[in-house]
Request: fold
Amino acid sequence: GLEGKIHIVQTKDVAIFAAAERNRLINTAVLDGTTKQVGVRVYVVNSETQVRKTTSGATCATTSSGVLSVDKDCKHVSLTSSEKSASNNVVVDVELAGLQSSFNV
Reply:
């Protein structure tokens, strides 16, 4: 007969990284009242160096709320007519299962 062994290795998530689908945003919502949204992508790297895209369980925040809005669940960053400040570099902080990252918009 055939014999063999199976080794089961438990992987764990070791890092995350995130980015907006576009990193240059112009808030035209202050001119026409239409909210502009850009998707956010969150990726998880596990101990086997495999990468997967997710937003499930991720949370996002920014201290630059006068410049843009961030969905708490990391689906989008938004520019609305109420955000009238400008910035060349807004930092969005991302957290998922105790792992942290940030990206600039």
In short: Helices lie at 29-32. The mean pLDDT is 91.
